[in-house]
């Protein structure tokens, strides 16, 4: 099995050693105490209903009971959220926290050192948590394994941020949609930027095993070209069905699922046949692929907000014309496909591609989901119980129910009346600790 290049190990180790030293100078978050949260309205995403007069009993960061309010249990602290609507902590399944972010400068990820990337990742993690997203699936970073290190730093309490499920790196063809193309010859990129390069089914399987061994929670494959990658086309297949299946089989043997970046219909079908758990973007999905996804139970994670951001900000800031052209060719058709998927009953979960737009603005997508056929309740469910189901963690997160982590969000305005209210979170709790 491949080993992590020594310089990659040192980059990641030193980056987060520096980060931990800086954060040690700041105060640590309070430890979870027994609490009794009084909710004005409580959104039961399992039942799809809203209940008034409920209180949530929390001990050691876990929800113990949800019942009509009464006296505060002995030894517990009462939190009065009676003026708020309380929903489960939100989940974004398509984020890029441990990265430099999108800009007109193609070389920015290369110019940003591992240490700087670590600090940026910590900043992005805090913004995301403050926005009410207590869990994320981070679907890839140019500097491989930085997301693993960020997840571990959050879990250790060194960095405030959401619960993270991470991919480690992209499994992609040489010069494919997961590479940093157009900056220097790809062969000259640092080793930590090419951890997932694969040209055959055997190489793809080996890379998957390598990433799992380094702590990846799932595997991210690049099944088609990308909008925001030079020299690739979203409609064109990249990793073949056989390569994708090799990754799926390898990951399945380790109890790990695979997701596929796939814009074009051919690549989507290849990925579904190969057995991936979810499709990212699905911009150019056709009716046959929609039917295949429904029949197979394959999830779609469609980032229908950020096309407008790319067009507006990308044009203003001078992003590459290739990016802008591909974005225009995929934005509206993706939203049409999303609407069809909703009406067909295809499994849909919330994912935004944060990092393309500024972190912390994840909730802007909710209004788009409602505009394109979801009800407000369906949109909220997509970012709570449905997202948890995709992760296979519905008994731990995604709902306000006994046995789940005490991840809660409180909003002054009712998001069932105006889903955009989720863009202005008033209070956030993660693992029983009030973050804000």
Question: How is this structure best described in words?
Answer:
It is a single chain. The chain has 436 residues and is α/β, with parallel strands linked by helices. The chain folds into 2 domains: 35-88 and 398-434, Urease, subunit C, domain 1, CATH 2.30.40; 90-391, Metal-dependent hydrolases (TIM Barrel, Alpha-Beta Barrel). Helices cover 35% and strands 20% of the residues. It is built from 13 helices and 15 strands. The protein has helices spanning 6-23, 108-111, 114-130, 146-155, 201-213, 241-253, 265-274, 287-296, 306-317, 321-344, 365-371, 376-382, 385-391; strands at residues 35-44, 49-59, 62-68, 77-88, 90-95, 133-138, 163-166, 170-171, 219-222, 258-264, 278-284, 299-301, 408-411, 427-430, 433-434. A 7-stranded mixed sheet has the order 3-2-1-4-13-14-15, with no helix packed on it. The chain has a 5-stranded parallel sheet with strand order 8-9-10-11-12. A 3-stranded parallel sheet has the order 5-6-7, sandwiched between helices.
Topology:
Layout: H1 6-23, E1 35-44, E2 49-59, E3 62-68, E4 77-88, E5 90-95, H2 108-111, H3 114-130, E6 133-138, H4 146-155, E7 163-166, E8 170-171, H5 201-213, E9 219-222, H6 241-253, E10 258-264, H7 265-274, E11 278-284, H8 287-296, E12 299-301, H9 306-317, H10 321-344, H11 365-371, H12 376-382, H13 385-391, E13 408-411, E14 427-430, E15 433-434
């Amino acid at each position: 099995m491949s080993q992590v290049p020594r310089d990659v190990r040192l980059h990641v180790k030193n980056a987060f050693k520096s980060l931990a030293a800086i954060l040690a100078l700041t105060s640590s978050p309070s430890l979870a105490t027994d609490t009794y949260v009084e909710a004005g309205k409580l959104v039961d995403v399992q039942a799809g209903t809203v209940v008034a007069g409920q209180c949530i009993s929390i001990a050691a960061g876990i929800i113990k009971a949800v019942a009509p309010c009464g006296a505060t249990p002995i030894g517990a602290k009462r939190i009065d959220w009676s003026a708020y609507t309380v929903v489960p902590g939100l989940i974004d399944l398509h984020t890029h926290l441990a990265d430099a972010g999108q800009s007109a400068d193609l070389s920015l990820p290369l110019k940003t050192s591992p240490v700087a990337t670590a600090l940026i990742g910590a900043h992005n993690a805090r913004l995301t948590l403050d926005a009410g997203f207590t869990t994320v699936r981070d679907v890839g970073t140019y500097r491989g394994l930085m997301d693993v290190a960020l997840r571990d730093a959050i879990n250790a309490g060194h960095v405030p941020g959401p619960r993270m499920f991470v991919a480690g790196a992209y499994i992609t063809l040489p010069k494919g949609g997961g590479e940093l193309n157009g900056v220097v010859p790809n062969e000259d990129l640092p080793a930590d930027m090419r951890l997932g390069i694969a040209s055959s089914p055997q190489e793809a399987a080996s890379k998957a095993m390598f990433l799992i061994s380094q702590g990846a929670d799932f595997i991210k494959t690049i099944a088609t070209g990308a909008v925001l990658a030079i020299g690739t086309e979203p409609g064109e297949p990249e990793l073949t069905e056989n390569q994708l299946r090799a990754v799926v089989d390898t990951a399945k043997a380790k109890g790990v699922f695979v997701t596929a970046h796939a814009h074009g219909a051919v690549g989507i079908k290849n990925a579904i046949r190969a057995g991936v758990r979810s499709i990212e973007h699905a911009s150019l999905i056709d009716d046959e692929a929609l039917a295949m996804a429904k029949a197979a139970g394959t999830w779609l994670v469609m980032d229908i907000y950020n096309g407008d951001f790319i067009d507006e900000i990308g044009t203003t800031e001078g992003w590459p014309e290739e990016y802008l052209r591909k974005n225009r060719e995929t934005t509206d058709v993706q939203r049409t496909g999303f609407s069809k998927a909703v009406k067909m009953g295809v499994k849909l979960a919330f994912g935004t591609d944060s990092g393309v737009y500024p972190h912390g603005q994840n909730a802007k997508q909710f209004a788009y989901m409602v505009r394109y056929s979801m009800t407000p309740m369906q949109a909220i469910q997509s970012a709570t119980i449905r997202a948890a189901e995709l992760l296979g963690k519905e008994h731990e997160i995604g709902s306000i129910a006994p046995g789940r982590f005490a991840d809660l969000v409180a909003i002054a305005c009712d998001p069932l009346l105006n889903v955009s209210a989720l863009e202005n979170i008033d209070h956030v709790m993660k693992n029983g600790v009030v973050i804000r």
